[in-house]
Amino acid sequence: MRLPDFIIIGAMKSATSTLHDQLAARDGITMSSPKELYFMSDDPVYAKGIEWYASHFADAADTDLCGESTTHYTKLPTYPKTIDRIAKHLPDARFIYVMRHPIDRLESAFLHMWFEKETTLSFDDAVAGGIPELVDYGRYAYQLEPWFDRFGHDRVHPVFVDRLRADQNDVIARVCEFLGHDGDRSWIHDVADNNVSTERLQQSAARDRMKTIPFYESARKLVPETAIERIRSRWRPDDRPSVSDEQRASLAEIFDADLVTLGQWLGVDLTCDNFSDVTATRHLGWTL
Description:
Layout: E1 6-10, H1 16-24, E2 29-31, H2 43-46, H3 50-54, E3 65-69, H4 82-89, E4 94-99, H5 102-115, H6 123-130, H7 133-136, H8 140-151, E5 156-160, H9 161-166, H10 168-179, H11 205-210, H12 216-220, H13 225-233, H14 245-266, H15 275-281
Parallel strand pairs: 1-3, 1-4, 2-3, 4-5
């Protein structure tokens, strides 16, 4: 069976889709389709068996590197069995962990839930205790520590979204080097960013029914783009929730405590205030 040589393990809403697609576009790398398999985290998916998991890499060439990208794998405490399962089935795998400013990541994750109508809470109520895991998923040191304990820090490659924005070629070259990929290590610019949250539309049963009408796609091509945008705006509400200044300050205190540990591992001082500037300036690796 072909199984992954590496996994992008998170964090959610931190450009993992962009990195997945960049790697998938390279000769010599086979990435899973769909991107997120949830096999090691979600009990019902794990029950499908290792053969089901391996089937997603059956078409890989013998010399290909194989990978998948499931952000559930770094969602403690929600999925506590993940690391044990990976250690059992993929004892030699490598891991990539992508980090974004923790408050920005949390806000984006909440908006995802809100667009999908998974919550009706306000942002402040969700963070204050309604959805406590939103905070836990962005405590990067907390999420990474058990991976270090089980696999060692040299098997986990850190990537930062702000560094990705500053120097795409440097980031992808270092990822390819970490994986042992000898092919092209430059950024592929014609790979689309397919996960732009600002273009997300709130879920709508009426809109979904429209797509089932016969010849919908053909008819849509005859409608002027300006009219389509007016229609789309009905499902792109202007009253999307956002974090208040008071809540942002409260979150900064929580995340700063975690960033102290993360910064020590990287050999830098990290806080919410300086996170973007520090992580964008240069590549940061573990100093453990």
